[in-house]
Write a structure and sequence with these properties.
Helix content is 52%, strand content 9%. It is mainly α and 86 residues long. It has one domain (3-81). Strands 1-2 form a two-stranded antiparallel ribbon. Strand 1 and strand 2 form a beta hairpin. The two termini are 29 Å apart.
Length: 86
Amino acid sequence: MAKTTISSPGRPPMTFQSGGLHQTTGTPIGMNIPSQKMAAAAAGRYGPKGKKQAVFARGALAKGRQTAAKNRKRTPADVEAGNFGI
C-alpha cells in the first residue's frame, strides 16, 4: 500500500496510507467497508489505530468527496432526475 498525500488551498497537506482501514478491518481492497465494521472501528474495537483511521475516513476523506460532488457540473438531465450530487 502506498502513501497518499492530499492537499487543498490554505490547508496543510495530509499524508496517509491508502487501504490502511481495509487492512485493519480485514476487508479486501476494492470492496466497500461494511457499515458494521466502520462503526466498530470508530468505537475503538479495532484498537486506537483503527479508531484514528475510521475518524479520518469519515471526516477528512468524506468531506473531500462531498466538496467534489458539490462542485461538479450538473446537466439538465441531472436536474430533471433530481440528482444534485450529494
